[in-house]
Write a structure and sequence with these properties.
- It is a single-pass type I membrane protein.
- The chain has 2 helices and 26 strands.
- The protein has about 375 residues and is mainly beta.
- The strands form 5 sheets. Strands 14, 15, 16, 23, 24, 25 and 26 form a 7-stranded mixed β-sheet that branches. Strands 17, 18, 19, 20, 21 and 22 form a 6-stranded antiparallel β-sheet that branches.
- It is elongated and about 115 Å long.
- It starts with a strand and ends with a helix.
């Protein structure tokens, strides 16, 4: 997210225009760079306004320079402007150079001021001079995240500033691009995590209920098994008409569950996204995001129940293991779970033991019949 706030001279007094970068933009001028110049992300919008970040490499670090040109002739963004001229300001971003092959991540609000312009960034994930065309697993946090490593639950879609090889720039969601069903290396967990009960409230009303054991299985670098401790795990989030979020934080480990309604007519909700953040130090964070999931589909007004272990691949090398799950992100009444839809049909829990019982009875019957037939045959021989 990029929010801009510009103070300009109006006809009667000074005014401040605050706006987000719009969706309808042009990326003319963006490029991946070459041997002499670094990559450039250039965005043009409105009437004569542009926002550009140009990355440069110095030894083993990189840094961007933002150039923002706003045109007070744009009456939509700058109504009643006294002067009708373009104005240009610039600033470094990130504020400090970032090591090469490292992703800069900032979930908190990060403010940059230049002249009469204030730029506010949030939920930023960027990397210049990519190796192999993929984002690095190594993270460098902004100062605000280093002291409070909690990703906002208001806007969970992590944005990445990427420049495509074709020379067009896109602002895109960081999702898993490989087949999530492909086999991944894993390490056996030392113990099953404890089951915790969590809730999210909207004001004084409980709007989301969850009970589960949570475990992270990360094999991206050094294999990690992380069990969330129910006694120290904090729950937060928010509830809406069509989306809901459950955020669980245990120390420096965080998982966000994003739920959504299928569509306006299906009356089904599902798990749409998972965000993982594991802070290892002030300059190293393991981060994985996937907002293209389609799990736990359940009828609205019901809860989802699954007693068996479930393993969900967020991105290759990052798994979330769920144990003894019961969750309801929509339609909670009086702080209680509604009727549950089981991930394993209820008939399975009854029918398999029933079949085994019938088979056992049949086996006993065959043994008895064979014994009786043998006894009768033996008695006939003696009479003869």
């Amino acid at each position: 997210m990029v929010k801009l706030s510009v103070t300009y001279e109006g006809i009667d007094d000074y005014k401040t225009s605050t706006f987000m970068l719009p969706d309808d933009v042009s990326y003319v001028g963006s490029s991946c760079g070459n041997q002499t110049t670094g990559p450039v992300l250039s965005i043009e919008f409105g009437k004569g306004n542009s926002w550009t970040i140009h990355f440069t490499k110095i030894k083993d670090t990189y840094q961007g320079v933002i150039t923002f040109t706003y045109n007070t002739k744009d009456a939509v963004l700058f109504p009643d402007a006294k002067k009708k001229d373009p104005v240009t300001v610039s600033a470094n971003y990130p504020a400090n150079p970032i090591k090469l092959n490292t992703v800069f991540s900032c979930s908190s609000e990060d403010t940059v001021k230049s002249g009469n312009v204030t730029l506010t960034f949030q939920n930023v994930t960027l990397q210049a001079f990519l190796q192999g065309g993929s984002l690095s697993s190594q993270k460098t946090l902004c100062d605000n995240d280093a002291t409070m490593p909690t990703i906002s639950t208001v806007d969970l879609v992590t944005k990445s500033l990427l420049v495509s090889p074709a020379g067009t720039s896109v602002t895109t969601e960081l999702n898993a691009t490989e087949n999530s069903s492909s086999p991944l290396p894993s390490i056996p967990p030392e113990e099953k995590p404890g089951t915790g009960s969590y809730n999210v409230k909207s004001g004084a009303v409980t709007c989301l209920l969850a009970s589960l054991g949570l475990q992270l299985n990360i094999t991206q670098q050094v294999p990690l098994i992380i069990n969330f401790n129910p006694n120290t795990t904090l729950a937060s989030g928010h509830c809406g008409q069509t989306t809901a979020v459950l955020q669980l934080i245990d120390g420096n480990h965080k998982v966000d569950f994003l739920f959504a309604v299928k569509n306006s007519t299906s009356e089904k909700f599902y798990l749409k996204g998972l965000d993982i953040a594991v802070v290892q130090s002030t300059n190293a964070t393991l981060l994985a995001t996937n907002h293209t999931l389609d799990n736990w589909e359940t009828t609205m007004g019901n809860s989802y129940l699954c007693r068996k272990e479930e393993s969900i691949v967020v991105i290759p090398g990052y798994r979330v293991n769920i144990f003894d799950l019961k969750i309801q992100p929509f339609g909670v009444d009086d702080g209680q779970f509604s009727a549950a839809e089981d991930c394993v049909p209820e008939v399975d829990n009854f029918f398999v033991p029933f079949l085994m019982t019938i088979a056992l009875i049949g086996l006993v019957w065959l043994v008895v019949m064979a014994y009786c037939a043998r006894t009768q045959r033996s008695a006939g021989y003696r009479q003869f």
